[in-house]
Amino acid sequence: MSDRSNLIYLYDGSFDGLLCCVFESYDKKEIPADIFSPDTVQTVLLPVKEIVTDQKKAARVLVSIPKKMGADALDFIRHAFLTCLPRKELYILLFLRMGFRFGPSVMNMLADDVVNTLFKAVKYLNNETHLLKGFIRFSVFNGALAAEIEPKNIVLPLLTLHFRERYPEERFLIYDRTHAMALIYRPYRSEIIPVDDLQLPEPDEEERSFRELWRLFYNTIEVQGRHNPKCRMSHMPKRYWKCMTEFDTGRKSRPGPGRPGEIKLLDSGTEPTGRF
After folding, report:
1. Rounded to two decimals, what is the model's pTM?
2. pLDDT, mean of residues 229-235
């Protein structure tokens, strides 16, 4: 088996596409120098090989992972794919090559740089997901709940089950500004869709009143003599504040990157519509 090649793999950014990169690596007996997605902004002098997503090849790799290294490894790389780790695709490919060689024991090889780096990234993903379960603030627009977040990791797939169980009879939307995607839920149906940009409407008088009551409650329950900004920031990191009602002093809804768009959550029983 050859060592690291001077090739750059270019794939479509999907999980199946990454599995096809793994297939190509074994089929051609090569390990790429790096793996780029369409969102990768980097100038390189190395030759680039485009990896076309083939569902059959992806399925072969997918089925082989739990067989060779256990179900935990498959769940682990699915989570690793959602992280904000730089060069995560290459780390996942190297991890899988180790897994196919060593089997289930790869999950315990924390002294290895590849395994350790991925474990830290997944831990960060899980911590951020856990925090957002408590930090997400919904507002009511036209009878539906809507919230905006700016996470570093792709957390919406991990937040879906929590909010489905918490609000099973509600209609809600969570918009991820960072990754231009939105979780849309109607009773017992949910989906995550790409959204180039989302502009929420201005809150009506009732919503503004509830926001002000929440800010009043937040400020009132504090014991002034025990005011500790450092402790607050350790439990509630400051980068989340911009999307939290208690720290919002009248900020208007801000659009994310991309061209203008909107999603309308209509009356119960109707489909959401939008332009993206």
Report:
1. 0.83
2. 72
